[in-house]
């Protein structure tokens, strides 16, 4: 299937992209064979906005791309944002640029921290499952749970020890006995070693998973098969495939606020069609991952293609116009 045409979020007015902070790369270090850590500090020396464990930021790169990265330093460390960047062999220019071009002193723009991947205070036990670079938000969560003296365990699945991040940091932590490292033979091999972990979940437990999409799908599916309820499952997405499906067709959107009708052609997103008509919708990832462009469907049957909205949010009209479409000829949007 062919890819949907790229949409350049940097072309939108700053107000449409949300508040941004000018930062500089204060420190850079190689964490593993294909992961680099970047410390970002406010360019004017000020304190950065606070964040909670599991939060992420949207990084706006000089090449016009916007990417999301989990914050992996302690929330109380207000002088910096630390991000872990995996070099993706199929990079569309984000991770490759950060690995090859982002030197100490480089200035960048970053959005304020956001999170849909927060710890559940009421949980009696926390099971953290990371696949590859998915360890970035989970190590921060593990440290926060340890400070709170909460019950938790961290399972880290990686291809090999040389490609695993934060091994020294975890080994030196007071909570090191709660960590289980699982090395895989293949990138997305089903980590069968997690079966007994998922089977033995105490009442009131919460499961948090982050990693490649295939890995998360396997873990969440195995958890549901083991009896976990959806309300106990929490995951973080940082990327999703945006494709044109064979059944995609032209349709139109009616903007409830003005009565204006905007046609949306096959192969173009609602956001692209609106932008071409002079209607700017806030946009960041363009992949149905971050929630920046979320709006509401007032009438019509949407075809949801995002990985951001919950089932309940979709039932109440939530709609991600960067990737989702219409099942019929028209949608009426709350715009």
From TrEMBL:
Cofactor(s) this protein requires: FMN
Gene3D superfamilies: 3.10.20.30, Nucleotide-binding domain of ferredoxin-NADP reductase (FNR) module (3.40.50.80), Translation factors (2.40.30.10)
Residue ranges of every copy of the 2Fe-2S ferredoxin-type domain listed in the record: 240-335
Keywords from the named record: 2Fe-2S, Flavoprotein, FMN, Iron, Iron-sulfur, Metal-binding, Oxidoreductase
A Pfam match: Fer2
SUPFAM superfamilies per record: 2Fe-2S ferredoxin-like (SSF54292), Ferredoxin reductase-like, C-terminal NADP-linked domain (SSF52343), Riboflavin synthase domain-like (SSF63380)
Keyword Flavoprotein among record annotations: yes
Protein origin, superkingdom: Bacteria
Domain FAD-binding FR-type: 18-120
Coiled-coil stretches: none
Protein name per the record: Oxidoreductase
């Amino acid at each position: 299937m062919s890819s949907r045409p790229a949409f350049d979020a940097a072309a939108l007015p700053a107000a449409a992209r949300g508040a941004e902070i000018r930062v500089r790369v204060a420190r850079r270090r190689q964490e593993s064979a294909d992961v680099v850590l970047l410390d970002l500090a406010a360019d004017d020396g000020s304190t950065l906005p606070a964040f909670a464990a599991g939060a992420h930021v949207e990084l706006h790169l000089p090449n016009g791309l916007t990417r999301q990265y989990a914050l992996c330093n302690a929330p109380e460390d207000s002088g910096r944002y630390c991000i872990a960047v995996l070099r993706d062999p199929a990079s569309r220019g984000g991770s490759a640029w950060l690995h090859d071009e982002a030197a100490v002193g480089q200035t960048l723009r970053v959005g304020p921290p956001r999170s849909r991947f927060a710890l559940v205070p009421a949980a009696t036990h926390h099971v953290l499952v990371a696949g590859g670079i998915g360890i970035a938000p989970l190590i921060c969560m593990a440290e926060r749970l340890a400070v709170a003296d909460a019950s938790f365990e961290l399972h880290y699945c990686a291809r090999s020890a040389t490609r695993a991040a934060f091994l020294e940091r975890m080994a030196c932590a007071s909570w090191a006995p709660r960590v289980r490292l699982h090395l895989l033979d293949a990138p997305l091999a089903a980590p069968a070693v997690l079966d007994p972990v998922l089977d033995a979940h105490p009442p009131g437990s919460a499961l948090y998973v982050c990693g490649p999409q295939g890995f998360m799908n396997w873990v969440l599916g195995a958890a549901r098969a083991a009896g976990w309820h959806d309300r106990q499952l929490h995951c973080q997405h940082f990327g999703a495939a945006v494709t044109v499906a064979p059944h995609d067709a032209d349709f139109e959107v009616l903007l409830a606020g003005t009565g204006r009708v905007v046609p949306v052609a096959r192969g173009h997103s609602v956001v692209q069609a609106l932008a071409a008509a002079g209607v700017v919708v806030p946009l960041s990832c363009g992949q149905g991952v971050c929630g920046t462009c979320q709006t509401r469907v007032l009438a019509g049957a949407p075809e949801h293609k995002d990985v951001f909205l919950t089932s309940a949010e979709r039932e109440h009209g939530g709609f991600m116009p960067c990737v989702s479409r219409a099942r019929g000829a028209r949608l009426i949007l709350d715009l």
